Amino acid sequence: MLLGGPVRDKIGLYTHPPRTSDTVRAAADAVEVVESGHRALKIDPMMISIPEGPAHYIDGQISRKGMEDAWAMTAAVREAVGPSIELLIDAHGKYNVPTAIDLCRGLEESNIFWFEEPVPVESNHALQQVRDKINTKISVGERIFTRWEFIEIFEKGLADFIMPDITWTGGISELKKISTLAESYYIPVSPHGASGPINAMAAAQVMMSTPNFYKLETSRHDLSDFNKFIDEPLDIRDGDLYVSDRPGLGVNLLPDALKRFAIEGFAG
Length: 268
Ligand SMILES: [Mg+2]
Known about the structure:
9 strands; binds magnesium ion; alpha/beta
């Protein structure tokens, strides 16, 4: 209500199956996500061929086998979930320009919905080069933190979707401002989400008042573990999150639960 009132009665989610190097397993896991009611899911089928981990970048390349394995896994997932499920691919900002283009051209055979962060975030010129050579829609924004950085994305038409993370952008006000900017360019917003229930609920509250909303990201289809940390369980049905009309975010953290599940030595 404080952000202008709701324009929808629920928040559509998209989510991730577990990471695996097994193509048969990936297809079965994707089917499990669809059976939970979700209509969109995201995978990074290249990650299994980048042994150094998700944050690593040396030359922006992937082996030919890694590329072919990614195409095969994506095709298997598409085959398993059918043509109408939105299949999103996350490149995690790891590739140089020609690698990103080659990768995406093979993935396009599986009718992917978007190609996320094809190149590292520092060069919008590189993003433009990829943009010019692929047909798939592009999503960027989890590594972009303020409204000013998004302006060039909009002005140069570098993305079809943006995906700011409410925590990393600095909170509710900045996500709302970025979303309103995006609305002016007719670009949908799909907040990034890879952490806990407060991140999800805060982004959901902003998206309730945001007309240009696609879907909210969650890291798994069954979020019941989140409920151990909050005083009101999340209401998720058939891939949609229903936002409580309780004050504030609608949920509160339980400090005792944070202590109970704390990893020893992680916090002082
Ligand atoms: Mg991502």
